[in-house]
Amino acid sequence: MEYKKNCDTLYEKDSLNDAKQTVSPNNQALKAGGRYSDDCYSIIQKAENNGTQYALDNDDKSGPGPTQWCTWKVTAVVFIVLTALLLVSVLIVGGIWLRESDVLAVSQKTSMEQNKQRQQEEELKRKEREREIRAEEEKKRMEREQEIREEEEKKRLEREREIREEEGKKRMEREQEIREEEEMKRLEREREIRAEEEKKRLEREQEIRVEEEQKKMDLEKEIRQEEEEKREALERLLGERERRLEEVRAQCNSGQMVSSCSTGLSVLLSVLLVNYLLDY
Predict the structure, then answer these.
(1) Pairwise CA distance, residues 240 & 276, whole Å
(2) How confident is the model at residue 47 (pLDDT cuts 50, 70, 90)?
(3) Model pLDDT for residues 57-90, shown as the tens digit of each residue
(4) Cβ atoms of residues 278 and 230 within 8 Å
(5) Model confidence over 94-148: pLDDT tens digits?
(6) Is 15 helix (H, G, I), strand (E, B) or coil?
(7) Do the Cβ atoms of 77 and 3 come closer than 8 Å?
(8) Angle (nearest 5°) at CA 258 between 254 and 263
(9) What whole-number distance in Å separates Cα of residue 179 and Cα of residue 173?
(10) In which residue ranges is the amino acid composition biased (Basic and acidic residues) (predicted)?
(11) Please, what is the Cα angle at 63 between 59 and 67, to 5 degrees?
(12) How far apart (Å, rounded) are the C-alpha atoms in residues 116 and 144?
């Protein structure tokens, strides 16, 4: 409608300058409205110039039905302009869309690569961290196991030492008890042996005393018997001596003094010798 109004305005004016002065402010107002781009305004300006020239030419001819002809031309121009604008808009939008699509695709690809790289880096960092954590845990576990083994070894050694000390103490106590028992048994055995020996000694002494007593009694008996025999023999000898003395006296009296004295002397010596032997 704005273009039709401009065209009508051009038709009504008599000169090109008047038409430019009238149409340009309207176009400038449309341009100031900001509804179209610079390319569109260039096309509109070109169409205005063509339309103005065509209106002036038609105005010089002064043919019948100028309003209808101008309307058809304006419609065609508007259609062409709109088609061109549509194509330009489509091309611009398509280019922008393609560019945005490419940019978006590149951005998405870059973002995906960055995300992938970041994920890989995070995964590497996570694995590295997990490896460090596992290494630290393994180190701590090994240190803890080493400490536990050392503590267990220390406790085992202390326990073994205590057990050895207890066993040594028990062994010493047992050996002491055994020695005491053996000493008591030895003393008891020695006491029994001494008692038996004392008993045997006493019995032996008793037997010896009995034997000695018996021997003494037997000896005394023998001595008494011998003494009795000696006494009897001595009595016999004395009787025999007296008898011989009597005989000697008788012989002396009868004159055989010398031989009788010698015989009597020998008999006397024999008796003295027998008495000496008996005393011994």
Answers:
(1) 18
(2) low
(3) 454 444 445 566 767 877 888 888 888 888 888 8
(4) yes
(5) 888 887 777 777 777 888 888 888 888 888 888 888 889 989 999 998 998 999 9
(6) coil
(7) yes
(8) 100
(9) 10
(10) 115-151
(11) 75
(12) 40
| Angle 45-20-13 from CA coordinates, rounded to 5° | 125
Kindly list the distances between the CA atom of residue 31 and the CA atoms of 61, 86, 105, in Å, as whole numbers in the listed order: 32, 18, 36
Element (DSSP H or E) covering residue 78: helix 66-253
Distance CA 279, CA 272 (A): 11
Taking the whole predicted model, whether its pTM rises above 0.90 is answered as no
For residue 94, which amino acid is it?
G
**How high is the pLDDT of residue 239?**
72
For residue 263, give every residue at least 6 positions away whose Cβ sits within 8 Å of its Cβ, in sequence order, or none.
Answer: 244, 248
Q: Is 258 helix (H, G, I), strand (E, B) or coil?
A: helix
